[in-house]
Amino acid sequence: MxxxxxxxxxASKSPRRRELLRQIGIDFELLLLRDKEPRGPDVSxxxxxGEKAEDYVMRVTLxxxxxxxxxxxxxxxxxxxxxxxxxxxxxxxxxxGKPADKDDAMDMLRALSGxxxxxxxxxxxxxxxxxxxxxxxxxxxxxxxxxxxxxAYCASSEPFDKAGGYGIQxxxxxxxxxxxxxxxxxxxxxLFETAKLLQEAGIRVL
Length: 206
What we know:
The chain is of the alpha/beta class. 32% of the residues lie in helices and 24% in strands.
């Protein structure tokens, strides 16, 4: 186990991001932000009018990092770097978040079927009252999906906690013809870029 000064906070509820951090040997503690009612989320993920996808995902990630940094100080927790991330899917300039229900997930899959779209993942590291940030963009091409295949996929629980309504590491892998970019970035945490930020903050990787 790494010494305490090599530990970070992860401000994310995503089990995939936890798995990916463990994959490169990062020791972390969860610092979870509120994202639901009754008091509402600590950081809003609403898209601002006219906001471009790149600006949106970077803004949300940075706001999460800075809020988590304030939480760290308010709770008087041990001072360590805080990692945050946010992922969004974009097709024809339209941002696809997490589907609200099966009909929403079906609409997203229809929009992505037989097309190439972009997956944008921004990561930010809050350390010593400063934030550093990286944006990673990948292209993903889905095969042409039948209604039967989409209904079968949406009958699983997979689509509903993932931007764009699918997860590359799950059943939807059977739909993906090709990717250009970062497989782990599409999962939600680009490991090459994450390792770079962590190393710049003095955290050993591996």
